[in-house]
Every structure is written in C-alpha cells, then in structure tokens.
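Problem 12. The chain below contains 367 residues. Write out its predicted structure in token notation.
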Amino acid sequence: QPRAQWLAVRAALTQLLARDGADPALRESAELRRRCLVPRAEVAMHLPAAIGDYTDFYSSREHATNVGVMFRGKDNALQPNWLHLPVGYHGRASSVVVSGTPVVRPKGQLQLDKADASKGTEHAPCRLLDFELEMGFFVGGPANRLGAPLEMHEAEDRIFGFVLCNDWSARDVQKFEYVPLGPFGAKNFATSISPWVVMAEALLPFRCATSAGSQAEPVPLPYLRDPNYSSYDVQLEVAITPAGGDRATVVTTSNYRHMYWTAPQQLVHHSVTGCDMRPADLLASGTISGADASAYGSLLELCWQGTREVGPLCDGSTRKFLRDGDTVSMRGTCLHSSGYTLGFGECAGQVLAAATLPPPPPPPPPP
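Solution.
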C-alpha cells in the first residue's frame, strides 16, 4: 500500500491508544479492551513480514576503516570504491529469524594455516563467531517496475520502518571463502531482527546529522545526492550474557548516526541498475561503529582481531569471540528532549553448539 495509507493507519491507532486520543472507543469499553489488547507475556512474536529479499550493506565509515586498517593497513583502509557508492551484498532471506530464536554455531571450511591459504582447509565448527550491530529497514509501497530505477525523491515513500538487526558473522569461515565474490556461508546461517517495526514517520523527531556531516570528498554522483542527507539519533547497545549467567553485560554502545551512506542512498543505489524493490524486502545498514573503541559494533573490532580481551562479563570471563551458550542482546532507544522515549524492543539470540538441533519455531499465526 502507498505511504499515505501507512500514515492513516498509524494516525488511527494513535488516536485509539493515546491517553488523550480523539477516539475513546478503547478507553470507554472494558470488553473491547479485553478483545483487542493481549498481555505481551502471552504473545509469541513472529517475523514482522514475509521477507522476500535481504541485502546487507557496509555503510559505516568508522567500521569500514577499522576493518581495513586491520587487514590492509592505515594507508589502504578504504577500498577505492567505498566513498563512491554504498557497498553491499545479497544475503539470505530464508535465514532471517525473529529475536529470541537460537543460533546454531555454523560449520565451514577453515583455513589450516592462517598465513598460507594454499595449505588448504578443514571442515570444522566456526571458532570466530561474531555479532554485528546493525539496523535494517523494510521496503514498502508499490514495487518499482523492473528496469525503472528509483530516484532520490521517491525514497521516503518506499521506506516503511526500521528494526534492530544482528547479522551474525563467522569470521574464520569468511576468511577463506570471500575471495573473489565476498561472503557466502559466513553470513547465510542467521540474521536476527527485532519483531517491532518502528515506522520512519515516528523517527522524524530524531533526525540528525550523520557522523560524517557531509559527503564532499568526493561528492556522490547526482543520483546518490540527498538534499536531506541525515540519519537518526538512535542510541544502540549490545550486551552479552554467558551460559548460566545471571545478568547481561553491555560490551558496546553506538549510535545509528554513525552512517556515511544512509537508508535512502542504500535504497536508491540498490535499484540503480533497474532492480525492482518489493514490499517487505529487508535492507540492513552494515555494522555500525563509532570513532571511539567503546562504540565499535563487532567483537572483531572490540578485540582488535584477537589482540584484546572484551569484558569481564558477569561471571568474570572475557571474550574475543562468542562462546556456546552466550546470549547476545541488542537494544535501541531514542530519547526526545521533551522527555519521551521511543524504543525498538530487543534483538536477542543464544549461541548453540554446532550440530545442535534448535527447538522448533512457534506455530505461524492463523490466516
């Protein structure tokens, strides 16, 4: 449905649910409240949409720089294309799961000699399992016709709303497989998202400058120039609870403003070749890292490629990468100057040992 209808539904729900809303139907009828409102503790949350296609980007300059410094050195941290277009790759929609779904440690081909790929591999469980702190957005509105790219002025009408996203990553699997076409099995085993979609309209009061401020060196090509170039002030955090732990320990805090390429630019670039963008397609931001080490959005950065310990956690243990039994939980919050808070809920998943059969998902909602 077009954006005008999303906004009409949102406005109607607001009037029904607001304490001083114009529609008193729920406030005045206990029977109607009983029929319409269900306690959250009694609800099994599902994916918010039947995801058609999933694409992950690599759009935080701070994150891309950190990873580049680790693997190529400071002078070649960013690849030549990075400042010219939103780098991305096609993910796997079938393995996008709702918050609370356990994640089985993947197996893959691991390089036997870290310094010499020619010595071959072994098939083994991933040893360098990582989280990636991201946000994603759902495409809405009628699909553009195949062969007809979206233009920047159309992007706002096609971005329905945002979720938290953990694009789990098997770093050692990726090391051997990614040349020359990029990640494959290292990224296709699980992507967790929060069940609550925060509409773009709700985020307008939190629009802010990106950490880049502007895109001047170089200036993007005309189709990527956004006259409203900005992001949103969403405070993000990641916490880890070890197996048997009694509480979560926050290991990083970041912010969605740490984006160089923004959601409208990602959407427009995705369609520049004429790709049709359909309702319920999911596009993720890529790992969101700030400039300070306390704001890094992955363990790869927090432990700086295994040279630092992260923690301690509640049981006194530290981490370089995730262990079996660890629960990773992500949260996002917007704080308005007037005092009200907008939350994204939680995006969480527990790591299960390789080859573990996870419990079945909750039954699908009735038609």
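Discussion. The mean pLDDT is 96. Students who got a different answer should revisit the alignment rule from Section 12.3.
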